[in-house]
Amino acid sequence: MSSAAPRVTGQDHSGPDHLWSVDEHLEDILATVRPLEPIELHLLDAQGCVLVDDITVPVSLPPFDNSSMDGYAVRVADVAGASERFPAALEVVGDVAAGQAEPLHVGPGQAARIMTGAPLPPGAEAVVPVEWTDGGLGEGPVRGMRARALAPEGATGHVQVYRPAEPRAHVRAKGSDVKAGDRALEAGTVLGPPQISLLAAIGRGTVRVRPRPRVVVLSTGSELVQPDEELRTGQIYDSNSFALTAAARDAGAIAYRVGAVADDAETLRSTIEDQLVRADLVVTTGGVSVGAYDVVKEALSHVGDEDEAGSGIDFRKLAMQPGKPQGFGSIGPDHTPLLALPGNPVSSYVSFELFVRPAIRALMSLEDLHRPTTRATLAADKALTSPKGRRQFLRATCAGGRVTPVGGAGSHLVAALAHADALIVVPEDTESVEPGTEVEVVLLG
């Protein structure tokens, strides 16, 4: 299924020397990415997916009047004035259990032992809890209903009731949850456990949804080593692919992590092509700057289809910090969207939050694409500085209307990122932010 529309290239702002704004880059991504085609899925497979159609209730819930207690179904007049001193003695005509096909009839002076969820039998007007009775044992008030196998006499004979009951007491009315014809769920609803429960309760075994996008994440760099392996001189552990795969899953995607690819353009190109069969979106990290070993740029700059306008990957510079180098476009026969992110861990993660997360949620056809934002007072020991003309995103913690920077501005500071739950946004035209100033904050948690 294609998840990208043909891109319009050749615009003035896409020249090699143009410094893209954050908003221009995001607008280009969201104008290209298209929601995935709807599919019919079984309920458990639809968890986390977005509902395509409104769901109408075909049958009321509950579908019949039923008891909310274990006790006895009675007529109100028969227990009027009942007390422990003067109990109402009723003939027990049998049991009414949940799922029972042929309910008993309760006539004057009669009662039926009833279980929670069982249908209220014809003739009965209320349910008295078993604790209000002697349980049919003739030994005073009981605390609970004994199993039928242990006390078969409780289902027949007589029961003494020690309290009166109002009409409809302890009765769940038919349709008191939802009525037939009501709208159970609206299109656009993300299906979680409660929504799946409701669908099952109204008899829906399958549902039409936008599927969760399949996102393939791979990092590049010959210096990268997998966790648990031995580090040698000049090597570092690959953290980006783990971070971005986890972030993609957090955004709602089904994410696949590919092991780090060495700095070889042909190997990277063939690896990406092999992954397209299971990808609605490809995310790479590293190799997008201007160095001699920036393999993503080398491998993907000329992969466009000559017969398809707008295909290919465009590498650009953004007026932001961190995350200046970025790449975006489509690849393969289905024009699968590809976002190429910088390799520094903080640059990579910030870029994911700003650009990849909205793309994933656009594929799901969600209206709420972005992390929530708020305003908070800057709590810092000194003024924050920011390069003129760049929109800066600083890691921070936010609580109680105050936001505190975490770590420095370096794009390699993974430990600081791990303790942050927000990003402070410093606009392009601001070079200094004094403590006590109200700032925009992106909430990550």
From TrEMBL:
A GO MF term: molybdopterin molybdotransferase activity
Enzyme Commission no: 2.10.1.1
Superkingdom: Bacteria
Pathway in which this enzyme or protein is active: Cofactor biosynthesis; molybdopterin biosynthesis
Keywords, sorted A to Z: Magnesium, Metal-binding, Molybdenum, Molybdenum cofactor biosynthesis, Transferase
Domain MoaB/Mog: 216-362
Catalysed reaction equations from the record: adenylyl-molybdopterin + molybdate = Mo-molybdopterin + AMP + H(+)
This protein's GO CC annotations: cytosol
Family indicated by similarity: Belongs to the MoeA family.
Function per UniProt: Catalyzes the insertion of molybdate into adenylated molybdopterin with the concomitant release of AMP.
Protein name listed in UniProt: Molybdopterin molybdenumtransferase
